[in-house]
């Protein structure tokens, strides 16, 4: 009997999952809460561009059109590219728009004690003979309408790590937004506004933005550009991060090859590899220090007390790549952008009070660019506390970055952070499609847990407390891809020559033919 598969979400992850599963002969249903595809790319601020070169943000079997000549395409070009992909691979008819999945529940008949299984789903294959997921779907346009419940053999969660559930800090009583006379919103709400409405909202207003990652610096640069020195924009943050020029990201990607991976500890390394890493890793340290010195020379970091306390290596190992908006420090220099570092802050009637200053920062609008509650969003979709607990207690990352050892017949795509998100997720989609097609079996639950623990240790070594961002693929992208290729039964060495194998960077193009070699 044909297996029923649901994909939840039609952002990049959902589209990738759908394309690769269709190719294996399945007929998935995609539930999408919004009225269109593209997820985060469908609601961005005006100045949004790809942060990485388009060659690294490319579907392996669907190149960017020749009309896109820019190395870093803008949000509209990215959306056009995503739409063209969905049309080309006939994904759109599979999608049910305005269908929000409110919860999913795993049901096994009788008294089967699935938490005690040794093998995933009881058998280690994707489809258990007995277990099913009940997926409850609500009409997103009419939440009062009766819900529909679908019985499915496999669920792929592609609900997005950076969308829908904003992270807004908690404040003690009488110190939060409730005492403030101005307007408070999250970067997600600002991005969702039409460009002219967003411009109208901030023009000639005193705007304060909280955070110092991509959303924060982009919005700050946009507001400072619009309002100039008459109404300077203030950026309040607790951690200074290394933010780099765009050409620098392109250069970093060019230097990530097999040779550089010899400098990085791996979860399964033997003595010889360990020794090699010990001998070569000083090069990685030197690279990190050189980058720091370069950035300190290029940007007035010392002048504005903006030298991060952590090293550049930790920054990239934590997957915190942020490209510096154009003329960012020029705006600081001219006074249209004011930078204020503060561990904490509170609201007052007319604005915000930060640690080091008694006088409030007078403000009309506060924008929280403080990220998202990704884990809570993932947890909330499960009906039972057993699976919710699996998510809250889960070690980052999942097995092969998409399978939770204790959640059967379900995969999660798009929760593995990566500087080249599309590339990373496409590799996992190919792996997942092969798994669903029965090309390989999963190891035992115990073995998967042990693997996850090893990765966790490895990530903690490089990223310390930031390891939860689940970013195993920056310094070990090729190593991870090798594991995926081996599971699927393909040769992981994709280059023609030994020197290229060692020193040339890998990109999505190298894995173009994986899905056809069945
Ligand atoms: C502004 C911005 C720019 C970015 N730029 C880059 C970049 O340059 N390089 C890079 O590598 N990454 C970038 N990223 C990271 C980005 O998150 C990924 O590249 C990618 O687009 C995420 O895709 P996704 O499908 O996993 O998630 P999303 O795009 O968040 O899509 C999730 C989809 O699931 C739907 N959904 C959620 N819950 C439900 C539900 N319960 N029922 C039904 N549908 C649901 C949502 O409506 C949404 O359409 C950027 C992110 C943002 C916010
Ligand atoms: N290509 C693009 O143009 C683009 C644009 C936007 C976003 N993105 C991507 O989207 C993802 C999300 O980015 P994001 O910037 O929205 O979120 P983010 O990377 O999670 O950054 C959140 C920021 O908020 C701060 N923060 C969180 N909680 C706080 C608190 N309680 N008090 C004060 N500050 C707090 C964090 O500070 P700490 O560092 O101190 O924790 C950090 O500076 C990233 O992958 C990013 O690369 C890309």
UniProtKB/TrEMBL annotation:
Class of enzymatic activity (EC top level): oxidoreductase
Record protein name field: Flavin-containing monooxygenase
Family classification: Belongs to the FMO family.
Keywords (A to Z) from UniProt: FAD, Flavoprotein, Membrane, Monooxygenase, NADP, Oxidoreductase, Transmembrane, Transmembrane helix
Cofactor dependence: FAD
Residues annotated as transmembrane: 271-295
EC number: 1.-.-.-
Top-level division of the source organism's lineage: Eukaryota
Classification via Pfam families: FMO-like
Species this protein is from: Populus euphratica
